[in-house]
């Protein structure tokens, strides 16, 4: 029951999300994902979503709610990651640290130097993605290549729900994919497909063309990346 009353999880947003993202997520849940009773949704779930939205969209009630749940949400609202257990406490004793860009779990900084490293909490890759200029001299990557690959993604951790989509194009720097969910610019997602696992930031989201008004095309930029196959049409053998 306690998890059900976590209003941030109910609306699939982070505890530091601005009101614009909360409003977008609420509209997506009620309309695009058809959780409104008039669209076939369950009355109890719709009431819970409305309750969460009413609290989090009002500055006064949101502040009171956060104070009442500061042990759950407080560390995520302060500047920078904070340790959450004995392992993290040990890391802070004279050891350089980094944080998972998705769940904010603290790790030793050298963990992010290994291309195969993963977050001990959420499993997201820790290795930074490569951001090449459009005319990068190394020529190690192609421009975004049209490719249709099934992709799954989640918005929060713990991930109480995942969403499915289909890529339109991708590269080692980012991808564009189509799904039924409207994503908010600057929102972070954890995604997985046959090409890679990644943590990405949403750069844009717009209605998909081709007569599909209930689908959205989102462009994301990778923050961290783990490529599952080192050889193929997107990257060279030297990457």
What's the gist of this structure?
This protein has 239 residues and is α+β, with helices and mostly antiparallel strands.
Unreliable runs: 74-93, 134-142
Spatial arrangement of strands, main beta sheet: 4-5-6-9-8-7
CATH homologous superfamily of the domain at 145-227?
predicted glycosyltransferase like domains
> Beta-sheet strand percentage?
15-25%
Structural class: alpha+beta
- Which geometry do the CA atoms define? globular
CATH architectural group of the domain at 145-227: Beta Barrel
Q: State the helical fraction.
A: 10-25%
User: Under the CATH scheme, which class of the domain at 145-227?
Assistant: Mainly Beta
Number of strands: 9
| Major beta sheet summary | 6 strands, antiparallel, barrel
Question: What pattern of helices and strands is seen along the backbone?
Answer: HHHHHHEEEEEEEEE
Q: What name does CATH use for the topology of the domain at 145-227? A: Thrombin, subunit H
Rg calculated over all Cα atoms: 19 Å
How many angstroms separate the termini? 47 Å
Q: Write down the overall mean pLDDT.
A: 76
């Amino acid at each position: 029951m306690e998890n059900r009353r976590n209003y941030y999880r109910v609306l699939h947003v982070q505890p530091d999300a601005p009101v614009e993202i909360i409003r977008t997520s609420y509209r997506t849940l009620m309309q695009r994902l058809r959780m409104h009773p008039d669209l076939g949704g369950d009355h109890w779930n719709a009431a819970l979503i409305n309750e969460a939205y009413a609290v989090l969209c009002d500055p006064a009630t949101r502040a009171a709610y956060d104070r009442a749940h500061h042990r759950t949400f407080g560390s995520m609202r302060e500047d920078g990651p904070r340790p959450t257990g004995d392992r993290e406490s040990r890391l802070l004793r004279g050891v350089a640290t980094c944080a998972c860009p998705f769940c904010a779990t603290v790790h030793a900084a050298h963990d992010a130097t290994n291309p195969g490293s993963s977050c001990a909490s959420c499993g997201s890759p820790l290795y930074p993605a490569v951001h090449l200029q459009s005319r990068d001299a190394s020529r190690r990557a192609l421009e975004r290549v049209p490719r249709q690959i099934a992709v799954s993604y989640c918005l929060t951790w713990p991930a109480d729900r995942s969403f499915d989509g289909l890529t339109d194009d991708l590269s080692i720097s980012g991808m564009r994919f189509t799904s039924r969910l409207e994503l908010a610019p600057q929102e972070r997602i954890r995604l997985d497909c046959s090409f890679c696992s990644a943590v990405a930031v949403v750069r844009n989201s717009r209605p998909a063309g081709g007569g599909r008004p209930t689908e959205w095309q989102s462009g994301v930029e990778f923050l961290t990346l783990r490529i599952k196959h080192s050889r193929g049409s997107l990257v060279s053998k030297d990457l």
